[in-house]
Write a structure and sequence with these properties.
The protein is an alpha+beta fold. The chain has 14 helices and nine strands. The longest helix has 38 residues. The termini are far apart.
């Protein structure tokens, strides 16, 4: 074969392998996934390098042909396995992958020793096509869920066409013979087309994989910056970034329920921080049950939480707050043979965009919550309404728990 047909592709694959190795050194927590991409590029480059360096007479022998095919099949298998792992689908272990690639080359070895060399290209082309098309089918739904849009469709289309390209080579080889579809190590325009197809698909695969890894990490970092890790609720930063004045203008009014766990410090000091964390996580799970399109829950810090009800008046918010208070009081934490009952004090305030800022409504709800503490804890209190409405302030007190 002509070396210049494949030399650029070999260099390209080795560069991809070196690039993935560098990424492994930088992103250690994803090294299992990244190793799949790195080994894929190295195996494919090595298989094509053997094809380029070894004489055609030698490569046509059963064992060298099977060895070259094993490197190429292993490289494609690593790429497929990496895609499955990236999409959180069941993948193969290192041992299973290598043994599977070896098993795929056994028919090629047997055909070579039986003198049926013309069938080897047909078999290996079908194996490659099945590998690519089955992986494309298996990852299609998961990929579109995580990465919706035309980009995923185009990548899936390119992968499908690549698999169909190999299936077509097998059919043409069977139908038209070696003169039209020669072996990889023979110089021909057909192999030049194959080299170009490999080069294009390798670029698409590696660049798309790198972009998707970066996109997922960016989303994870954004989520970490907006969510509390213990309760999985939104944090104070998210409250101010999501509930902007422009956003709140969509609603005629909104209400904020401020929640503070009663006697949390004695629980934390008496039972330990693990129990204290369990109490906070329990409240987080309870608040998550009340969240929907127009109701968002936040952990503001320490034992203080907030529930923002968009488009909900003060009267309805008070009803919701009382239900929430009872829910918390009836949800003890059971851990390490301890049953920890706890309650919460809640403060409610109503806001109207244009009359008060979000910070003013938060402060009003916070003052109402401290009023509930003064009334004996385990109760709901609310701040006086805005000047647009005249409602006599009241507080609904409940007996405090010891």
């Amino acid at each position: 074969m002509h070396p210049n047909q494949w030399l650029l592709l070999i260099v390209q694959f080795y560069l991809y392998g070196a690039g993935w190795l560098l990424v492994i050194l930088l992103i250690r927590h994803q090294r299992r996934l990244l190793w799949q991409y790195c080994l894929s590029a190295v195996c494919l480059a090595t298989g094509i390098l053997l094809c380029m360096l070894m004489p055609a007479d030698t490569l046509s022998q059963p064992l060298p042909y099977a060895l070259m095919s094993w490197w190429l099949l292993a490289g494609l298998a690593y790429a497929v396995n990496g895609t499955l792992l990236f999409m959180h689908l069941p993948g193969c272990s290192q041992r299973a992958l290598l043994l599977g690639s070896l098993a795929a080359t056994l028919p090629l070895l047997i055909l070579g020793y039986l003198g049926l060399s013309d069938w080897r290209l047909i078999v290996v082309s079908v194996e490659v096509a099945v590998l690519i098309l089955s992986a494309t089918w298996a990852t299609h739904s998961a990929m579109l869920r995580e990465f919706p849009g035309p980009g995923s469709w185009l990548f899936q289309l390119a992968a499908s066409l690549f698999g169909l390209f190999f299936m077509g080579r097998a059919v043409l080889r069977l139908w038209l013979g070696e003169s039209v579809i020669p072996e990889l190590y023979q110089p021909s325009d057909s192999n030049l087309l194959l080299a170009v197809a490999f080069m294009v698909m390798a670029a698409i695969f590696n660049l798309t994989s790198a972009v998707r890894i970066a996109a997922r990490m960016a989303r994870q970092l954004h989520k970490l910056s907006q969510h509390d890790p213990l309760t999985s609720l939104l944090n104070r930063r998210a409250l101010h970034t999501r509930l902007t004045e422009a956003h709140l203008l969509q609603f005629p009014c909104y209400s904020i329920i401020m929640i503070d766990i009663d006697h949390f410090k004695p629980i934390n000091d008496g039972y330990g921080h693990s129990i204290g964390d369990a109490v906070l996580a329990k409240v987080g799970r309870i608040l998550s049950q009340y969240t929907d399109e127009h109701c968002q829950a936040f952990r503001l810090g320490g034992e203080e939480f907030a529930l923002v009800l968009q488009g909900v008046s003060l009267e309805k918010a008070l009803v919701q707050a009382e239900i929430l208070r009872q829910h918390i009081a009836q949800s003890p934490v059971v851990q390490h043979n301890h049953v920890i009952c706890f309650t919460a004090s809640l403060g409610v305030a109503e806001g109207r965009t244009g009359l008060q800022t979000l910070e003013q409504v938060l402060n009003a709800a916070d003052r109402a919550m401290y009023q509930a503490k003064q009334l004996g804890r385990n109760c709901v209190s609310h701040a006086p309404c805005s000047a647009t409405r005249s409602i006599v302030g009241y507080a609904q007190a409940k007996p405090s728990t010891p």
